[in-house]
Here is the input.
Amino acid sequence: THNDTKINNVLFDPDTHDALLVIDLDTVMPGLVAHDFGDAVRFAANFTEEDSDNTEKTSLDLNIFWAFADGFLSKTASVLTENEVATLALSPFVLACELAVRFLDDYIMGDKYFACKKPMHNLIRTRCQVALAKDMEQKIDAMDALIRCAVRKYK
Here is the structure.
């Protein structure tokens, strides 16, 4: 798995806007499909940036979640196991929790891992990821229903 599946790690053709290749391969290693799916959704389907200090607006956009899940499953549903499918809806929540802990740890340890652009940047990131995880927790059943719908469509 890539383990850092954000849209800014995809190189696009400037004329056609087609995806050409995945870059930033330093985190590629054995892993779970849920890692890549969950991190991509966590990053792309948030109404705010991952370092927004406006946590009142931080939440999961179910329309983007659906579009991403539908596209992802159109290419993978036939090869995923039932266990892999069963973890997809929960995976963005888990990744948001993981990143919240990592950002908080980095803040406490003196901001040594994640690059910071402003004071308390990692603490702001932590709060944003906690807000996102709380919102996702409320939407888990809807997220799972959308996953199951797409799997039925493409299997």
User: Anything to note?
Assistant: The chain has five helices and two strands.
